[in-house]
Amino acid sequence: MPPVKVVLYSKILSMTNTNVKKVKTTDLELKDRLVAVKRVTKVTKGGRHFSFAAIVVVGDEKGVVGYGLGKANEVTTAISKGIEDAKKNLVKIPLNKTTIPHEQIAKFGGARVFMKPAAEGTGVNAGGAMRAVFESVGVTDVIAKSKGSSNPHNLVKATVAALLEMRDAYTVAGLRGIPMNRVFNG
């Protein structure tokens, strides 16, 4: 088995990565999934002030995904802001039918994620924040493991970073300048 590349991102959607394909929201039927809502408390001399932060993942379940963070004084406003932010950060992920093309490891902050393709009918074997990303992308068969931090913000970012590093066979053949059958058969 070939060695798996570890990806370290300070910014997920940096344009230095050649695989990143930004997507416009026109003509897409996006479904949003709420990953986490966090209550933040600011203590002032007048008492405690509560606000909410919501992280949301949106996708069309056909290979397009984006995530966003919304902050507001009410939960519903925070969620709607998160959805709007996620729609601004949509990217295209290469898929292999119902699974991912190859194994991948990625890291963001303290969160480390590992994912590998699974046979059809396996289902999404992943934790909460990773599961939301996979379902939004349209991956229905994958085995994934999160290590280190379980912070949902960093888990979502690490999962998207790993998915952005995915390359399908057509991309590999194009980069190497070889025909498709040599990609698999050497």
Structure summary:
The protein has 186 residues and is of the alpha+beta class.
Report on the architecture of this protein.
The protein has 186 residues and is of the alpha+beta class. Helices cover 27% and strands 33% of the residues. The protein is built from 5 helices and 9 strands; from the N terminus they run E-E-E-E-H-E-E-E-E-H-E-H-H-H. The strands form 2 sheets. It has a 5-stranded mixed β-sheet with strand order 1-6-7-9-8. A 4-stranded antiparallel β-sheet has the order 2-3-4-5. Helix 2 packs parallel to helix 3 (152-164). The protein starts with 5 loop residues before the first strand and ends with a helix.
List the secondary-structure elements in sequence, H or E. EEEEHEEEEHEHHH
Radius of gyration over C-alpha positions, nearest whole angstrom? 18 Å
> Which percent band covers the strand fraction?
25-35%
Structural class comes to alpha+beta
Number of strands: 9
Overall, the morphology is elongated
Q: What count of helical segments does DSSP give?
A: 5
Biggest beta-sheet profile = 5 strands, mixed
**Helical amount among residues, as a percent range?**
25-40%
The low-confidence runs, each spanning 5 or more residues with pLDDT under 50, are 7-16
Average of the residue pLDDT scores = 85
| Order of neighbouring strands in the sheet with most strands | 1-6-7-9-8
The quaternary structure here is single chain
C-alpha termini separation = 14 Å
